[in-house]
Specification:
Layout: H1 9-14, H2 20-47, E1 52-55, E2 58-59, E3 62-68, H3 77-87, E4 95-98, H4 101-107, H5 112-123, E5 129-133, E6 136-139, H6 148-151, E7 183-188
Antiparallel strand pairs: 1-3, 2-3, 3-7, 4-5, 5-6
Helix pairs in contact: 2-3
Length: 206
């Protein structure tokens, strides 16, 4: 399974001489990535051990999180979105810590997806880091807004894609995870423009 690349906001800022467009894009990336964490937290809050979290990157149109869910059951999209808004006010700061690969695996001992990611990170001789916000901890490389409760407006995001099983051919960046029998994907995208509470609301993209 491949770890998706999280864009470095500093690199994005360097691409635009004026800084304005690149800064806006950097804000989008970190806000969307923060929301992927919030989505994962909402899933665990509602469904507990019925859900095994896999991976949650940003994409060009928004963000998503892949997860394993019992076959034959369908998570409630509206309920999860509402839970995200309920949790958001308590998400005031991301903290992180470096951890050994063995300790990280112990933290996710019943999650084979996280274990595979840790093996990949260790194989690349990269640092293993855990990020925590609002009491929720996940394996992550970083790239978040400083204060989600302040920086992300509750009405600025929407889970607009239905859940569905991830077919083998649709998950090309995950070599091992795509063989899982019951992976689902929850997505948030077009309604998320712009992501920051301090920004002026824009119309959805066509």
């Amino acid at each position: 399974m491949k770890m998706p690349k999280i864009p470095n906001p500093l690199n994005l800022l360097k691409k635009d001489k004026s800084g304005k467009q690149a800064k806006s894009q950097a804000n989008l990336e970190v806000a969307r990535h923060s929301l992927a964490h919030l989505l994962a937290a909402a899933l665990k809050e509602i469904y507990g051990d019925d859900v095994k979290l896999a991976i949650g990157p940003t994409i060009e149109s928004g963000f998503y999180y892949d997860f394993e869910y019992p076959s034959g059951k369908t998570p409630d999209l509206e309920k999860i979105e509402n839970k995200m808004r309920e949790l958001l006010p308590s998400w005031i700061q991301f903290t992180h810590k470096g951890i050994s690969a063995n300790d990280a695996k112990a933290s996710f001992i019943e999650n084979q997806y996280k274990s595979e990611l840790i093996d990949e990170i260790e194989g690349k001789k990269e640092a293993v880091t855990l990020y925590t916000c609002g009491g929720f901890t996940d394996l992550c490389r970083g790239g978040h807004v400083e204060n989600p409760a302040k920086d992300i407006a509750p009405d600025s995001f929407k889970l607009s894609h239905p859940f569905g099983s991830i077919e083998a051919g649709l998950c090309q960046q995950h070599q091992r995870i795509r063989k899982a029998p019951a992976l689902c994907r929850a997505c948030g995208d077009r309604a998320f423009w712009p992501p920051l509470a301090s920004s002026r609301r824009l119309r959805d993209r066509p």
